[in-house]
Every structure is written in structure tokens, then in C-alpha cells.
Specification:
Blueprint lengths: L1 H4 L6 H13 L9 H12 L12 H18 L4 E6 L2 E6 L2 H8 L12 H24 L2
Antiparallel strand pairs: 1-2
């Protein structure tokens, strides 16, 4: 609880977005791919009215992934980590107790009164918005 409460106010929206993505991974055997996670976090950090297209160039992917790795360390308060499995990376809770903490109704106020299911659904919506944006970007090229 102390770790979550020590996260600066300005980082809390980014952390909530990250938690949404990690929790929605529970509904997919492979979880959210790290590249998709990074794109979703990149969108999360943009102003909602930003019309700039996302760059999918390999150099921009590398930059985006380094930035998201830094943001995970800076914004998650030690709740999240990047796990490597073979040649795949994904973001996960540092320990199962973090997920249990989020799911405990007594702690819901810390997470804007949302249950783990609500947070996971928001993550799924975030991924769907990302895919919609990417499809629209492909249609315009």
C-alpha cells in the first residue's frame, strides 16, 4: 500500500494505464506483447486531441521501448517489471501479491474505486483503440 501511495500524482494516470494493460493480459494466454504495450503507453502519454501519427519505424520502436522501460521504473513505484521469456518481453506485476492488493476491495479507493475486472476491461478498450488507430493509419497510406 505504501508503494502505491508514494507514486507522485502526476504519474498516477500513466500507472493506471499500465495496470489496465497488465490486467487485461490475464485474459490472453500470451499477454500483451511488449511492443503493443509500448504503443499503448505512447498513446496514453499524448494529448487526447493529438493527431500526429504513430511512427512504426524500427528506430522509433527502439526509442519507444527504452522510454517505456524508463517510465515503468519511474511511474510504477516498483509494482511492475519487464519479464523476458525467450525472445519475448512483457510487463507483469513484480509479485502476485500486487495483483491481490489491487483486487482487494479495501484498496479500491487507491485505484479510483475500480475493481480488477473494471481495470482489465479499460485495458482491453485501450488496446482496441490502439488497433483502431493503427488500422486507420494503414488505410491512409
Amino acid at each position: 500500500k505504501r508503494m502505491a501511495e508514494n507514486i507522485p500524482k502526476e504519474d498516477q494516470p500513466i500507472l493506471m494505464g499500465m495496470l489496465e494493460l497488465v490486467l487485461c493480459s490475464d485474459y490472453d494466454v500470451n499477454g500483451v506483447n511488449f511492443a503493443v504495450f509500448c504503443l499503448a503507453v505512447d498513446l496514453l502519454q499524448r494529448h487526447p486531441s493529438a493527431t500526429k501519427e504513430l511512427s512504426l519505424k524500427p528506430a522509433d520502436d527502439d526509442r519507444r521501448q527504452r522510454e517505456v522501460e524508463r517510465r515503468i521504473r519511474a511511474c510504477s513505484g516498483g509494482l511492475l517489471e519487464i519479464a523476458q521469456s525467450g525472445d519475448q518481453s512483457r510487463v507483469q506485476f513484480v509479485h502476485q501479491t500486487v495483483k491481490s492488493f489491487i483486487g482487494d476491495a479495501q484498496n479500491s479507493a487507491i485505484f479510483n474505486g475500480k475493481s480488477t475486472r473494471d481495470i482489465a476491461v479499460a485495458g482491453m478498450q485501450r488496446v482496441m483503440r490502439l488497433f483502431t488507430l493503427l488500422l486507420a493509419q494503414m488505410d491512409s497510406t
